[in-house]
Sequence to fold (372 residues):
Amino acid sequence: MQNEEKSYLHLEKYVQCLEDPTNKLTVDQVINGTNTFIPHNIFFENNKANTGYTYWGKISIKNPHYHKAKSILNAAALGTNYVDVYYRDQDGNLIHKKNGEYVPYAEKDIKRSRTNRVNIEIPPQTQSEVYFKIRNIDNRIPHFQVSIESLSSFNNEIEARNLIQGIIIGEVSIMVLYNIFLYFFSKDKAYLFYALYIASTIFYFIYHYGFALESFARNLPQTNAYIYVFNGLATVFYFQFIRKFMDLSELVPLWDKILLWVIRVRTAIIFIELGILATTFNFALVASISTITLLFIVLFSSALLIVLLKTRSSIALYLIFGTVALKIMALVATYLLYYWEIRNAIGFIQLGIVLEILLFSLGLGYRFTLND
Fold:
């Protein structure tokens, strides 16, 4: 750690790994025992991580300075259920820090955000061994994702998150209340389903940024997995909005019937996913079902938009442009996240939602003018 203000990413090549099939090894047994650690690249080249095992890692961090080096260590991938970090302080005492998606709020070292970061302090002019173990209970495959970043970098990230998400959630909340008011005023269900659709888009970002873990789910962090499932309601309300907005039963009756069945199936899938979580808490399976369903919905909605375009309806253009804007931003976010590893790339999806909301709102206004 030559520069405390610098971030060091992808440190897995410096990590030594140990597999614990019993999930019973203690930190004393790991540090003082005869267990053999294997370099990360060799270990995972020859072994596939088991969803039910605990994995230990260790990394050597050198502090060349004459003062304690304070930094933030991330040991595992986002969503890892339990992360425990151990290192010795200047007096040789073993320090234990916890984090992880399902660690209760009071036990977390860093309580803000959903990541697995903890504060570490390396004594001056020493080379310290930092040990960490990761474990999942929701059937996701555990894997190490080790990095070190400065305190200022982390604080700036959280401040930016809170500011941007505060603005977006505030805007969305205003739009929800406004459209609910319009529904009670006009009795037009298009406004009601539009308000519900806007509100349901918030679920994923509450899940992704861990806002529930910082507020109402502090003592029951597994709630976050259920919030992920309720994100599926956005599809249900989106298609209901299209049915009412376009009056599909009159415009294209066959597609209205198809859409009703898609809505019923998606609703049933949500209940199935909730049932899986309640009985087995297999989040990996739920996430797979949700992803496959989402891919189908993207393809189906694209076909639906083509049908609406062929009707030559002027108000359909608002739906088409709004949905396309969201899809383009989602593609940009996916590319930046997985190929450039830009952590805040998910914000492009929110930008797409804002553009979609704007265009849908203009469409509702134009529709009101036509019907007036």
